[in-house]
Amino acid sequence: MARAFTLPPATNPQSIGGLINVHAGRDPDYPALTCGDVTLTRRELAARINRRARALVRAGVGQDDFVAIALPNGTAFMEIAFACWAIGATPAPVPHRLPPVELSAILELMRPRLIVGDVSAADAGATVVSEADLYDADLSADPLAEAVARYVKAIPSGGSTGRPKVIVDHAPGALDPDAPSLGMQNGDAVIIPGPLYHAAPFGFGYLALAAGCHLVLTPRFDAEETLRLIERHRGAWLYVVPTMMHRIWALGEETRSRYDLSSLEIVCHIAAACPIWLKEKWIEWLGPDRIWEGYSGTESIAATLIGGREWLEHKGSVGRLAPTTQIRFLGEDGLPVAPGEIGEIYFLPPGGKGSTYHYLGAEPRAQGEWESCGDLGRMDEDGYLYLADRRTDLIISGGANIYPAEIEAAIDACPGVLCSVVVGLPDDDLGQKVHAIVEVVADAAPDAETLRNFVAERLVRYKLPRTWEITTERLRDDAGKARRTALRDARIGAQG
Question: pLDDT tens digits for 36-50?
């Protein structure tokens, strides 16, 4: 019988930071967390969390403070996050390779009590401690008095305005250790090959540990290594984005068939639209009851889920909303579109506007009490949601959200540039690739290499344009508006 992919209500919520102690008390030697060659048992992980929590207190962190975690994937990342929750603080994952300019802007908004990272984070002008500084074997490994963070996490985003923002999740830092999360069950091996500074891998990771699962992380994504880890740890639950799915599929049947994946119960893909052909191949390969798709956002104003068997009857849909969440589709004039037509998607969560999150550094996109993440879509007569475009201008590349305005702001600062327009072009591997069209001064034009080096000092690597186009043609009108869709479509047409 297929597992239920649900999030049941908590009946006994407890501080997330103390849940590893709960599971350690039941089976202390069961594996809790693996990354690379390191595996920690529940007892070992609980002890390290408790020591790190006391080190955080010693460093001046207290109830509801933000702690920025700018670390690569590893056991220390999750240890420090759980240590934050143990003292009622809020972890804030930050990409560990952000350029100093970008990191400084995020930290200015967030104002964390502490930043955990390396020398690259210190280059941003902030006071930084290393993960080693936050571990003292002489500190007590005993559980701490329970404290619950007001906000479970804070996640930075590039922002649609070209300026960064921080999304503060209003869920408290408490979970029920005996409530299965999205099909994860106590004792499962949960494989997450994504970077923990993104909301989905981080969220699924802490849900897995809170439910008593064995969380298996990877230092970085590798298609064949992911299959090896599933086989080695008898993985029951796997997180992927469509780019990962494509790269695993591209290994070929001979390579894929070398690995025993019979333990898999759930494959959850999220973060970007999955091509229909690719999802069909995965359903043919692993069966419809294992494949699940989620649609949501870091803001958590709404969510849908759809299983593979249901998807085969509604190909292309991301599922149906919970009946407690309201939805409407509005045109550019702000009025409702006709049933079944494409419009911008607005939601009203059960708790009303502003109940699930707030921004630092931005204002919500709203029409009265209704809020939008900028996605376009439609709903069929059976209540199934279909996305036409994940966001009007947003580029989703390799499962990561990339905002054109942020890249344009960096390009436009380069000497010799008049303005720029950044669009996403189809890419078989990444889903979309970032393409920059740059209007330059004719007699002082920077070349593509100069532009690339200039922007690389200001943006994290995955946001950098993969292709460049330099022109002296005017890209924007007097109001600063660009015909972005026309520019994108013309280049797609030129690709053939």
Answer: 999 999 999 999 999
